[in-house]
Amino acid sequence: MVGKKSASKVLFAVLLVLLLALAACNKTEDAKPADSGDKKEEGKKEEAKDDGLYSIEDFSNVKTNEGEAIEGGAFTFGLVSDTAFEGTLNWNFYSGDPDSQVLEWFDEGLLTWDSSFVYTNDGAATYESSEDGRTFTFTIRDNVNWHDGKPVTAEDWLFAHEVIGHADYDGPRAGDVLNIVGMDEFQAGTSDTISGIEVVSDKVLKITYKEATPSLITGGIWTYPLAKHIFGDMPVKDISSSPEVRQKPIGFGPFKVDTIVPGESVTFTKNEDYWRGAPKLDTVTLKVINPNVVVQSLKKGDVDTVSDFPVAQFPDNADMSNVEFLGAVDRAYSYVGFKLGSWDKEKKVVKPNPDAKMADVNLRKAMWHAVDNDTVGKKFYHGLRWAATTLIPPSHPEYHDETNPGTPYDPEKAKQLLEDAGFKDVDGDGIREDKEGKPLVINYAAMSGDDIAEPLAQYYIQAWEAVGLKVQLLDGRLQEFNTFYEGVGQKGNDNPDIDVYAAAWGVGIDVDPSGLYANNVLYNFSRWENEENDRLLAEGISEEAFDVEKRKEIYNEWQQLMSEEVPVFPTLYRAALVPVNNRVLNYAIGDGTGIYRSDIEVTADKPFADK
Amino acid sequence: MWKFTVRRIGIMIPQIALLSILIFIMAKMMPGDALSGLIDPSIDPATIEAMRDRLGLNNPWHIQYVDWIKGVIQGDFGQSFRFKMPVTELISQRLINTFWLSLATLILTYLIAIPLGITSGRYNDTWADRLITGYTYVGFAAPLFIFALIMVWIFGFHFGWFPTSGSVKPGLSPGTFEYVLSKINHLMLPALSMALIATVTTVQYLRSEIIDTKQKDFVVTARAKGASESRVYNRHILRNSLLPIAAFFGYEITGLIGGTIFIENIFGYPGMGQLFLESITLRDFSVVTTVVLIFGIASILGALISDIILSLVDPRIRIK
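Output (structure tokens, whole complex):
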């Protein structure tokens, strides 16, 4: 008996040993595909010599439809994030992108926009503006209902404004409603109502804005109603943490939230009563997937599509057989900025310093000429990022000035500019001194992040050295996100050691750049001021700019001014790629495609797997 | 025994108080705050500044600390800036996940360690022993996060035996049998990955203890009295060799905390480890301080448990 027991123990131990041996075998097995992966990459590199580069023009932002759709079906969406989504599931309160990815499925704004980001009359509400462009009358369609069957009313829309303007409101959108007549009084508490908003009838709302600007119709209107029959009696400070926001959120979009596993997954079922008509899909599952496993999840068919695909991994996976890659120009640009002053915290304006190290415009221009962004895009990003020319990215095709060449790579010109401006190499060590002949050392702040961050920073430093400028990394290393923006001046306490910095901006749907470059905005990190700039920025949102042609002209002039003054210079534009499983029909990324989430269909029960 | 426990708990309290101050100061020394990530031209900086004021982020650290500790004593750990929900609620959601993950890991660790350790110690210098020690060396050398990635690749993607992320299949309602099964299925792979690495120390301990004990006089005596070989091993040697393992149990908990930080991030498993890391990068101070405090308390408690177990199994070290 006893002997048997120990024998079984030994057997168990042996089994475990075998298990481990198996695991060990698998380890070597694992090494193989990694090897072949490397080989593939090498093969690609060889191809790349003739034409291994990709271009955004080769991608469509609309999925090609192949095959017959099946009835209903279940769709899986991968939310790529290394953090859990916050779960503030209401447009009026959310603050992070992961939450907005969840929100998109079950709620929407009352207005939609076209490909040039102008509000259309195809959405859940239509609008008309008055002669002077200040008063808008919105009519919500009759068949637009909340998921619980109650109609979406003008009252709900007004309620959203009241909550956002409330003193206890804890979301980040308070700035979005300031342009409404009577909002100041409402916020100050001297008035119980917002005089500029009038509920005309159940479905009709009239809003009067303080200033008429073309920005109003490109994202300047708050279009997300808040269900008053649910949140009406709740104290404003409790709404964002209430179960009606976090556990059983409500909207009027194509799908209804079924279950939520906090931070991890959400399941949706179709909303039969959706105002565009019942969605084709039966259910949608959204789950968070770690960026480390995106490629594997797609290959295996775990997900139909993902929110975001790491562009750096595209060349190795371009031949994935079960997906089609959609591409669009990202509403963003990378840039290099020059510190030209500091922030005056009291007056809330920039305080330019005429003696700043980077104050000479020729020095700045030379630094732009010295870097070869075209090659950076090709070498580091396989052509999926490319040299930027102006500060309005091509994601806004109407306003991006294609004819403006920017400042192309020209190291000889850079040297000439520096020479003429008086930055000469006095002591013959190959490094230029400043105008007085004193050593010139420029501190460069760059952010840590992906694998490319370090080599990219080193490249820029080398490129500047090649024209005789000594540039060194601030503190000898890359800066972590928070440290970086703290130093650059996110709170107005600029780090005086920073002379040059590299960062990126996402661009809103409205083209108006005053949020980044006006002299009274904190985000004007270069702390640069210019009368011409002030004039153009003001004109860009003035009444005469309602004329698109005129507005284009103004912004073309502004793009040219920025090229001449170079407080910052754009480095790269970028492509956003999204892989979509071949079984999916009617899927699109980008704006104004006219394809909505209720249109998505599938041709098979399960996503296809990679062969 | 009770005296000893009470005394240890008495020491724990100032330890935790000191820990809380240290954590708080260090958290505040990190550049940026919970609102730094909101840098977005479409959000008015004035709005952000107003939010900062409301959250008290502009107060000096000692005032913030007093505010925080006052709440903590009343069981209120404050509000998460990012999740906009009470930290207590947030952590209780995550703590359950980590608890099950840790429990599964512990069970697996001992399930692997004890038979392997016994085999290796009893039959030392045989092929089986060499294989097992070989594995322990590999285990010592392999970094957990690389090993876990390999496990995901092999068992998650290549064979498809286990799910690769999350803690439960989406769409199941809590409480059902299916839900529980799915939970177990989801934590098997992370727990196994962690256990396979964590177990190697225990295997080695057990092995050397058994080899050590084998040569003790009382074992010779037991044999001389005619006890069967399995009786000698199971009753005399094993019991004595398990002593240090039992004592090690509390520290194992501390080790698990470190492990879950890696494992939960790789497996997208929403537990305390993942919460800890993302709260640091996003500067969600109230969460960071609370999580570290809980980790700290867990470590201190782990040490306490170890001491108590030790004094239970080994009367020689009991404090009078």
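The radius of gyration of chain B is 24 Å.
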